[in-house]
Amino acid sequence: MAYTRRTVDDELDGLLAELPAVAIEGPRGVGKTATAEQRAKTAVYLDDPAQRVVLEAEPGQILAAPPPVLIDEWQKVPAVWDAVRRAVDRGSEPGRFILTGSASPVSAPSHSGAGRIVTLRMRPMTLAERGISAAEISFAELLSGRRRPVFGETTMTLKTYAHEIVGSGFPGIRGFGDRGRRAQLDGYIRRIIDVDFAEQDRAVRRPAVLERWLAAYAAATATTASFETIRDAATAGYREKPAKTTTIPYRDVLERLWVVEPLPAWLPSSNRFSRLAQAPKHHLADPALAARLLGLDDATLLAGRGPAAAIPHVGPLIGQLFESLVTLCVRVFAQASEARVYHLRQHGGRREIDLIVERSDQRILALEVKLRAAVQDDDVRNLLWLREHLGENCLDTVVVHTGPRAYRRADGIAVVPAALLGA
């Protein structure tokens, strides 16, 4: 199968041109190994027991291999990290090591690698990377603050977006037909529960409880529901609910596996905003995992059927999963532009803005995600409020929607179909 170049490829090439060691991290199956293999002359796969035994005996031997050296699933032999760090300290040339990992190691290396090994996050494929529509609107341009006109048109409809939500951004999964893809996603979820937790020294005594918790977390996608609410939804109908000491490790392990990626709240250093909530929004690495955990396909999403887990939310679940899909895309594009992504919510939900992208100079791009083809004045109310408060520190304001065309409204807010957004 031909390799599909990703947004992260440009980031990786730029880092390897200057730095001796880069670690690509992200959930299992996201494409880390395939991306690293495009550049490696030597590859060592530590999920292979034979290769792992050799490096466990002598981690330093990897230093003699012809570069660039790929060390895949490095966390299975944490001593390799220290060997690479020491090589960097001795003055390795740029682009010598590429490490990949689908989990944080249980036994951490003796040194964090800070200043020696740079980490690069890899996420599932964006809509632009899936090749379903031409990415005509540059995210970097929106983030520049020049507020230029936006143009473009797509044939994607709500039905197509629903198909992409369940279709997955994992390269090895999205190529299957509907039944094969569902089986692959089921297998992915089973591996998390049956294998990955045990490898993190968190063997699951009651797999059914963890699976229900995952489903409840999926139902909370793009909300700030408390973990108590998620726990209660996961155990509805059960007299004895698991203790926090049981469910909190679920979240911790899933974050170490990069399966969940909460979106933090934006808390600016200035005091011009008051009563901002600090709770993160919940997101799984791939919205397809959330849909599968809830037993939803594109038809049931379009029909507006909700999940069994009782998580308070507004509107149909497809809106939450569409927001999660857009959040995935924006995170990829923001990382390429060296920016960070947050959400804004005042206490009580009086004002909410789905995505706040902050540059290093603390100027921001604000985006609202709307599951509708026609944007109305009420959809931009919070964006106008934020722009008025921030003044020149607001670089641009955007509504990402499911409609066919990109344009700028008379009030200056950009309206962009999700399918047209690229790096």
Could you characterize what this model shows?
With 423 residues, the chain is an alpha/beta fold. The chain has two domains: 7-121, Rossmann fold; 137-422, no CATH class. It is built from 15 helices and 14 strands. The strands form three sheets. Strands 7-12-13-11-10-9-8 form a seven-stranded mixed sheet, sandwiched between helices. α8 (178-199) crosses α12. The longest helix is centred in the middle third of the chain and has 22 residues, at 178-199. The relative contact order is 0.13.
Task: Order the strands across the largest sheet as they lie in space.
Answer: 7-12-13-11-10-9-8
**Structural domain tally:** 2
Strand content: 5-15%
Helical content class: 25-40%
The secondary-structure element order is: HEHEHEHEEEHEHHHHHHHHHEEEHEEEE
Q: What is the overall shape?
A: globular
How many E strands? 14
N-end to C-end Cα span: 24 Å
Please give the largest β-sheet.
7 strands, mixed
Q: Please give the radius of gyration in angstroms.
A: 22 Å
Quaternary status:
single chain
Q: Count of helical segments?
A: 15
- Nearest-integer average pLDDT: 91
Instruction: Give the helix/strand class.
Output: alpha/beta
Low-confidence stretches: none
